[in-house]
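WARN retry 2 of 3 for item q-0093 after timeout on previous attempt; input resubmitted unchanged.
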Amino acid sequence: MQYRRIIPCLDLLEGRLVKGVKFVDLQDAGDPVERALFYAHEGADELFLLDTAATATSRPITQQLLREVSSAVGIPLAVGGGIDSMAVIDEMLQCGAAKVSIGSAALENPAFIEESARQFGSSRIVVAIDARRTNADSPAWEVFSKGGRRPTGRNAADWAREAELRGAGEILVTSIDADGTQEGYDLGLLQAVTGAVDIPVIASGGAGKPDHLYDALTEGGADAVLAASILHQDRHTIGEIKEFLASRGLPVRR
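OK item q-0093 returned
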């Protein structure tokens, strides 16, 4: 049985937990270690730590957080933000990450996916795709790099397909349009990406209520859902969400 996964996302800025809307207006949301432990006890399947600054000064802070969290929780950790070399991947894995998420570096050098998958294994490599609808009436989404600031001209579904062919083990797809709005995931984007690949897809951006996660896992075709605002603001617990999903017939680990 393939369980559907609930993955809290901890956006980090200089060692603090933050949350924004559409990748901007980041606000302090508390202590990340405290939150990570809370989510692990609540029943999170994995945790995702994203270094939103990803600078030379922020990386040691992220590594220390990884060490603290991995030593205290018994669930897999993924880390993203500024993962741009084999050395950095190795550092993050040594600090306790089970997976790393690569985005901009993969877009700049697609062979980086192949190299990292070859050295560390596909199961450890997640390719992150941040995408925005090209226009309101178009069923097409453009990939953006550098934290959603730089358009690449790449189609999201096409890039997901290429990432899989190059060795990615999972795809993390985030809707920039929906991020932080709590109005639901972009199901059209999810359908485009899940329809293009055979590897697991993690949905991100827009969760505001349990129905949104259910829609992403069913209509959107995602294998897992990333969530932040819905959890950080204590609107719903992971237990409540899993009970809801189970009541609708989805297999979840409890």
